[in-house]
Design brief:
With 256 residues, this protein is an all-alpha fold. It is 71% helix and 0% strand. The chain has one domain. Helix 1 packs across helix 8.
């Protein structure tokens, strides 16, 4: 039986839904650029790179919050691994699909690949309590430490730039791929999400539960309920939105 009742925390779903909407706008802009309708540099322009980092941060933070809720509600390991397999299979599908579209820069360690690895680590760290905060800081700092080590000992650490190991994020140059979300520093963001979620649930679970209900009322209630719905189905939406956007733009191009 769950350790606590298992209501939906709509406020967390809304936050996750917001990340999905922002991601959709970003990907739609990227697709416009890919089809020649927009002139933009998504790899170097700070306007786009900052957005990308912010979207990933919000998405990963929400995943940490979700794990805090799962542990609080006594989610079984069976349910955890069922969800993990869904994410792992989706990451494989992303790799295969991106290989057909971008054979020279396909996604081999994108956000879903990183999430699959980070979820296991964060689940193992779920009992760390307040130590999740300093552990998160260490995870955030490791890429910087690795960059200094590469500068001091380039030949000895070159293996970390190889595809076999660059999923760790301890690199001196970014790999050529359409999406890259390595273990470090993003594990730190998920640790922060887990820590914030555990703190909130231990002290203010009832407030957090009522927050979503309150936000869903009033003039803004309907859009926020839409965000909550989107947040509950985030993985399905993530897998469907790009094929639909690319398909729509392809049809538009043919009609022109």
């Amino acid at each position: 039986m769950p350790a606590h009742p298992t209501p939906r925390f709509a406020a967390i779903d809304m936050l996750r839904g917001l990340a999905m909407v922002w991601m959709t706008l970003f990907h739609f802009s990227y697709d416009l650029q890919h089809f020649g309708y927009l002139q933009a540099n998504f790899y170097a322009d700070p306007f786009w790179t900052t957005q990308r980092a912010s979207i990933v941060s919000l998405f990963v933070f929400c995943a940490g919050l979700g794990q805090a809720v799962a542990v609080y509600q006594g989610q079984s390991l069976g349910r955890f691994w069922k969800r993990w397999r869904q994410i792992a299979l989706c990451s494989l599908a992303v790799s295969v699909g991106s290989w057909f579209m971008f054979p020279d820069s396909f996604i081999y360690f994108g956000i879903l690949h990183g999430m699959a690895l980070m979820l296991i680590v964060v689940r193992l760290l779920s009992g760390a309590g307040r130590w999740l905060w300093p552990l998160g800081l260490v995870a955030l700092a490791l890429p910087w430490v690795a960059a200094q080590a590469h500068a001091a000992w380039p030949d000895g650490l070159e293996f970390l730039n190889a595809r076999t190991f660059n999923g760790l994020g301890l690199i001196s140059r970014k790999p050529i791929t359409e999406d890259y979300a390595p273990l470090f520093p993003w594990l730190g963001v998920m640790c922060f999400g887990m820590a914030a979620g555990q703190w909130s649930l231990q002290r203010h679970a009832a407030v957090l539960e009522r927050a979503g209900q309150t936000l869903s009322k009033g003039v803004a209630g309907s859009p926020l309920r839409g965000l909550a719905f989107l947040g509950r189905w985030s993985l399905s939406y993530y897998m469907l939105h790009q094929p639909l956007l690319i398909g729509a733009l392809s049809i538009f191009g043919l009609l022109r």
